[in-house]
Amino acid sequence: MKIKYTTMIVKDMDESIKFYTEVMGFKIDSQYDLGPAGAITLLKGEGETMVEIIQNPVNEPGLFSMGMDVENLDTTLEELKAKGAKVTMEPTPITVGTLAFIEDPNGVRIALIQHH
């Protein structure tokens, strides 16, 4: 598995974009307007790992999850379950592939994504 992104919920998208681009030196990779559900911006620094920031009316600001890229989601989930991982969302089709969530002992969400 390799880390693909970290997701943070932010209270002000414009302020957060300004911080990550002007202060941290990240570049905007892509942006998605979700209408009343909020907005998503993917930011890229050096290397392949990205920062995903989300502003929505549901979640509190802070670290939301860490995304991991996997080759075979079903196999990876079975291996993790056998080692005692807590699955919080079974595999679900998404636009770019299939997504599942596990949780670490601290309650941190770990997204496992098999891309098309």
Describe the model:
The chain is an alpha+beta fold and 116 residues long. The chain has 2 helices and 8 strands, in the order βαββββαβββ. Strands 2-3-4-1-5-8-7-6 form an 8-stranded mixed beta sheet, with helices on one face. The protein is globular, with a radius of gyration of 15 Å. The model has no long low-confidence stretch (mean pLDDT 93).
Structural topology:
Elements (H helix, E strand, L loop, with lengths): L1 E8 L3 H11 L3 E7 L5 E6 L5 E6 L6 E8 L3 H10 L3 E9 L2 E7 L5 E7 L1
The main sheet orders its strands as 2-3-4-1-5-8-7-6
Task: Describe the sheet with the most strands.
Answer: 8 strands, mixed
Mean pLDDT figure: 93
Low-confidence segments: none
Assign an overall shape.
globular
Q: What class, by secondary structure content? A: alpha+beta
Number of strands: 8
